[in-house]
């Protein structure tokens, strides 16, 4: 099945221009943040899994492996709570990601405990970058799911 719509099909269209801004913002975080690259990829992968975005799940799992991430860790992201292969800082980032992604499911949004735990492991700039990364991947996941973009054909290294 092909996607319903190519948001980049007409590069002069308003939607294509807006989508480019999302991409530029994400690229800035991925390239300039002091948040560890491994943490960034785990966060992107976990949000994409939760949102059912096959394309982004394909992208971020392959990019993590391409960057040298251990296959066990990539395979266990969806079950990070039941795994021993993630650092406490990564676990805090993954918890923040899940709560920030499941806002509609969790009436309280992000808990003070999840925020405090993330703040124990990340400085203020890293926390701000984490918030932006979670928000951006959730927005891009939703775009991909709405248009029916499928995963499977991505070649590692083209994004992030």
Please provide the count of β strands.
Answer: 0
What composes the largest sheet? none
Give the end-to-end Cα distance, rounded to a whole number of Å: 26 Å
Computed structural class: mainly alpha
Order of helices and strands: HHHHHHH
* Total helical segments: 7
* Helix-residue proportion: 55-70%
Task: Using the CA coordinates, give the radius of gyration.
Answer: 15 Å
Please state roughly what percent of the residues sit in beta strands, choosing from under 5%, 5-15%, 15-25%, 25-35%, 35-45% or over 45%.
under 5%
Unreliable residue runs: none
Please state the overall shape, judged from the principal axes of the Cα atoms: globular
Mean pLDDT: 92
Can you put this structure into words, describing what you see?
- The structure is a single chain.
- With 160 residues, this protein is mainly alpha-helical.
- 62% of the residues lie in helices and 0% in strands.
- Helix 2 (37-50) runs parallel beside helix 5 and helix 5 (88-101) crosses helix 7 (124-147).
- The mean pLDDT is 92.
């Amino acid at each position: 099945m092909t996607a319903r719509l190519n948001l980049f099909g007409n590069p002069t269209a308003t939607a294509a221009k807006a989508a480019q801004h999302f991409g530029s913002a994400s690229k800035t975080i991925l390239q300039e943040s002091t948040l560890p690259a491994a943490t960034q990829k785990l966060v992107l992968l976990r949000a994409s899994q939760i949102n059912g975005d096959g394309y982004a799940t394909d992208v971020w799992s392959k990019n993590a492996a391409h960057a040298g991430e251990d296959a066990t860790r990539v395979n266990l992201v969806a079950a990070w709570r039941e795994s021993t292969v993630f650092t406490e800082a990564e676990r805090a980032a993954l918890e923040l990601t899940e709560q920030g992604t499941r806002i509609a499911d969790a009436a309280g949004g992000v808990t003070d405990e999840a925020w405090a735990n993330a703040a124990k492991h990340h400085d203020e700039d890293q926390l701000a970058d984490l918030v932006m990364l979670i928000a951006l991947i959730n927005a891009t996941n939703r775009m991909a799911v709405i248009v029916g973009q499928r995963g499977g054909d991505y070649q590692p290294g083209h994004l992030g």
